[in-house]
């Protein structure tokens, strides 16, 4: 496997596979400590599925990698050198005839009545194959249909036919053979020269294209290092900076408001459902837990139908009561409100479960003493319940914030980031958050700018890393305080 990867021109990948499997063989086939045999699968999985994607994504952020720059310079040059074009005057119509397991190719001239045929090729054929004139095609089997010709396409592409005058014909289409010439010739210093016009195209290692002196570019381009250009674009390019800053602020607001609203709904419900005097508590607990039990994508799609401007139940009710039909998906503010409503519905059961578990740890003696002092439910909540659960709840709320910071599903399924910003060179929606914005940059933009998307992803990673560090610090402080 390692040799195959190396032979394919990927020495770094070959080295990585060699190290991974070599370490595995050493751990399991030598007399090392048995603890390493249990640690190795987890460490290897972390390297392959966490560390490697992170480093690979970060490295792409320093390149111009995109749909127009997918190949290396050597592969792009080889691809262009392989391009050919058939000489129009030499094209001959071709049919394939198979009889008794042997294949023969019949050529018909477009400019004369000349008919040529190959000898039996037995389905293989090593070129150039000499063809001879034939006066009648009655001795040949019927020509294969297009489906059977396509099944033999690889063989036909390797076939070369030699005419009586010495001209060599190559495969030029499913039904054609012709004299094929290269579009490009190799020049010195990695340049390409047009075989037709003689124009020279030199590799520009700043733009990633083969360019002529007049600035004409050849496609495909090739991947080059661009340093911090993708990161600088986030700050310096006004067409990118405007949507990026707006999307960043909305991402923070979306995450923070989701936490606030889910706590505002989940915490009171947890307090209510922990009230022992409440009848049918089990039934209520089951009902309010349902949004968490239903798969999120189903709930999101149901809400997408409910908020439909013309046929949704929500607008039908609002029109009946107030005579209005809000444009939930067209108005940016209403779209954001809709997203927060749906995300609150999806998230409050989780907060309710967390708060219910934390309240179980509060000593009942405190509530009994409060009752003897004549305190009411609100006093108990603000003086006992909230202060005692806020510290252990804070790291969990930071986790919820970080999760919603990357909550791609609710944005993609509900609004797909729309409505879009106007007059921008990059695709950006007013309800996009950073992760959905990155997805659109990488896969939905006409240029599919993977390098820029990787740079944005790296920025998001460091933001989430900071939140994780804060979370760990808060958890450590809480543990020490207890």
TrEMBL record:
Name recorded for this polypeptide: Maltose/maltodextrin transport system permease protein
Coiled-coil portions: none
Record family assignment: Belongs to the binding-protein-dependent transport system permease family. MalFG subfamily.
NCBIfam families the UniProt entry points to: PRK10999.1 (NF008232)
Key words, A-Z: Cell inner membrane, Cell membrane, Membrane, Sugar transport, Transmembrane, Transmembrane helix, Transport
Assembly: The complex is composed of two ATP-binding proteins (MalK), two transmembrane proteins (MalG and MalF) and a solute-binding protein (MalE).
Matching InterPro entries: MalF_N, MalF_P2, MalF_P2_sf, MetI-like, MetI-like_sf
